Amino acid sequence: MAITKWSTPSSTFNHATTELNSLATGLRAFGTGVDNSTKLHRFADFELISKYTSRPTSTAPYHNLYLIPALNGVTYVISVAATAPPATLWAGSFPVQTSTGPQRSWIPRVMLPPFKYKTMLENKAGKALAATGSTLRARTYNEETA
Predict the structure, then answer these.
(1) Using CB atoms within 10 A of its CB, is residue 77 exposed (0-12), middle (13-18) or buried (19+)?
(2) How far apart are CA 116 and CA 84, in angstroms?
(3) Among 67, 112, 120, 124, which one has the highest count of C-beta atoms within 10 angstroms of its own C-beta?
(4) Cα(141)–Cα(120) distance, rounded to whole angstroms?
(5) pLDDT tens figures, 29-72
(6) Cα of 132 vs its chain's centroid, Å
(7) How far apart are CA 93 and CA 121, in angstroms?
(8) Which CATH architecture does the domain made up of 13-145 adopt?
């Protein structure tokens, strides 16, 4: 009988760092593009380290994560951060605590497309991110059957 288990994850890599500097509430920022057409990783665990200059005040603050594909390997479905992404590109939400210190949130097992994509983070925290110190990063992996 075959046994399916997780493969060894990739090293952690940053999707967005300076792109998140001072990201105002209600706005979005793109991360760097990732070409998944060679490695063909199926899943990623995303971590957001967010930092604020003042305490988030929304009733239920959060950040939305979207995966923006380039189906033809060149042109992304959305190329302007001001364009609201369709719900079909939503990958998950990072919860935010109402405190000013650095916070870590996690979205596990996001299925990745088998081609080029980039991340988009939408700030719904009620406050801007700090001028420095916020990072969106991930580790990718597959399932393997032995």
Answers:
(1) middle
(2) 20
(3) 120
(4) 20
(5) 999 999 999 999 999 999 999 998 888 876 789 999 999 999 99
(6) 17
(7) 9
(8) Sandwich (2.60)
